[in-house]
Amino acid sequence: MIIDVHNHYYPPEFIAAIKKGPSKYTVEEASDGDPPLCSPGDKTYVVPGHRDIAYRARVLADAGVDMQVITLTAPGTTMEPADRSAYLATLVNDALATIRTERPRRFTALATLPLNDPDASVRELDRALAAGFAGCMVYANVNGVALHDQRYWPLWERASDAKAIVHIHPNYPAGVEAMEEYWLMPLVGFMFDTTLAAAGLVFSGVVERFPGIKWILGHLGGAIPYIAERLDRGFEAYPECRVNIPKPPSEYLKHFYYDTVNFDPKALQLAVDFAGATHLLAGSDYPHLISSMTRMKSSIEEMQLTASERAMILGANAARLHGVEIVVSS
Fold it and tell me: Residue 95 — φ and ψ, nearest 5°?
């Protein structure tokens, strides 16, 4: 069974609400029917795979992918005013819940949260969990506020109590003004936004304090598998790095999950060596221009793995996390 845990979807209801406004997003008209969805400094062409769930289901069937965990992409609703953000998050999650109900063999989902309103985020997570979601996707920073900031601790407490998934996706990173050329923000900045978020959550004690959360890092964890040893040296060298945690950072980070949106088999192998095949999850980034379901599959196939390890990464790990019945692909 193949489950793609990292991909993105814009419910038509969300696009319609943005068009109607008020919103800091804008939706431009497009003669080809693929309207650009624009946020400050970014533009996404909303192709059929982003907005048409029936089309997406056909793409999955043609690609030999059994299921997707669909999510709203960054920055989600967080750049809107707090009340508008909460309204749009509810709108998106209701649409995702409908898809989960109507197409349960093809799609499940993670909720989006109005993270610029921490109290509303707790309420929306409660609502999503009650509706059967396994957790949420959050962004590695929220308008410059770190995920380990104490304003989010009630959210992490609730997620931990529920043993929920929290999948971290990068957002506009600090220093983004230096990344305006050559798509450097998504190509480079995103990786370090995730890396900073994960390191901050560990060093601050959030991961130690709220052990029930099932953390997933997007894009193979940014640089985490590569620099974990350096974080451990910081723990040994600097007293500040030992204030909130009794163990080296790698001891926590090895228990995170890492999606495979890095299609280099050698990079994937580094992550397996770091966290184990039980902690990698197949991801494609569909339908962004930089995505590839083909490379998602082939990069895992090219790794030196046992059949059991390969099956875990392709889908069994995700099925376990999401409570999905494993169906053997024909």
Answer: -65, -40
Answer yes or no: pTM beyond 0.90.
yes
Two tokens, residue 124: 């929306």
pLDDT for res 328: 59
Number of domains in the chain: 1
Q: How far is CA 259 from CA 5, 166, 223, in A?
A: 7, 12, 13
**Which stretches of 170-309 are assigned E, i.e. beta strand?**
214-217, 257-259, 280-281
Residue 103 has pLDDT above 90, yes or no: yes
Q: From the centroid of its chain, how far is CA 163?
A: 17
Pick from 60, 62, 50: nearest CA to 8: 50
The answer to whether residue 52 sits within a structural domain is no
CA distance 289 to 45: 9
DSSP line for 96-164: HHHHHHH-TTTEEE-EE--TTSHHHHHHHHHHHHHTT--EEEEESEETTEETTSGGGHHHHHHHHHTT-
Q: Pairing mode, if any, of strands 214-217 and 165-169?
A: parallel
We report the CATH number of the domain holding residue 123 as 3.20.20.140
Report yes or no on 250 lying in a domain.
yes
The answer to whether residue 41 sits within a structural domain is: no
Q: Taking all residues of the chain, what is their mean pLDDT, rounded to a whole number?
A: 95
Alpha carbon of residue 45 to chain centroid: 20
Written as one letter, the residue type at 133 is F
Stated as kind and residue range, the H or E segment containing 70 is strand 67-70
Assess if residue 20 is contained within a domain.
no
Q: Which domain holds residue 176?
A: 74-93+108-322
The set of long-range contacts for 38-46, using a CB threshold of 8 Å and a minimum separation of 24, is 39/75, 39/79, 40/79, 41/172, 41/176, 41/180, 41/185, 42/172, 42/185, 44/73, 44/288, 45/289, 46/10, 46/15
